[in-house]
Design goal:
The protein is an alpha+beta fold. The chain has one domain. It contains three helices and ten strands, in the order βαββββββααβββ. It has an eight-stranded antiparallel sheet. It has a two-stranded antiparallel ribbon with strand order 3-4. The two termini are 21 Å apart.
Length: 133
């Protein structure tokens, strides 16, 4: 699996309505709708399909010119989770031109939220650097 990061507001969980509104007004991210993602296991050739849930989102990768399902909405706790690999350019290599980081940081700012890791560490939305944890 990988290491997960999330967009969250611990004291005031994000609602699906708020999430949907901000995603709908932010360039580089869109709601996934009811699309299914089809993946092929490179070792076995098995085809696996996963249906998106309400609130799940796709991000645009400016390097490949493609949309990727990457954000899982968690209505139960009002968070949006994603694998840290999609923003590794910014968080690991300080590449502040990383379009996906810039998009997700913009979403977090619009929601007055934070980006945090599995161990409670926080990331500065402007510098992508870990600030605590």
């Amino acid at each position: 699996m990988g290491y997960s990061l999330k967009i969250e507001r611990p004291e005031n969980p994000i609602t699906l309505e708020q999430w949907s509104e901000v995603v709908g007004s932010t360039e580089g991210i869109r709601l996934a709708g009811s699309a299914s993602n089809t993946l092929t296991n490179p070792l076995t050739g098995e085809v696996i399909s996963l249906k998106s849930k309400e609130g799940d989102a796709e991000v645009f990768d400016s390097e490949t010119g493609q949309w990727h399902s990457a954000i899982m909405w968690r209505d139960r706790n009002g968070t949006a989770s994603f694998n840290s690999r999609i923003v590794a350019g910014a968080t690991d290599y300080n590449d502040l031109t990383d379009s996906i980081w810039l998009c997700l940081a913009s979403v977090a700012k619009k929601l007055s939220a934070q980006i945090s890791g599995e161990e409670g560490e926080l990331f500065d939305l402007d510098t992508a650097k870990q600030t605590s944890g």
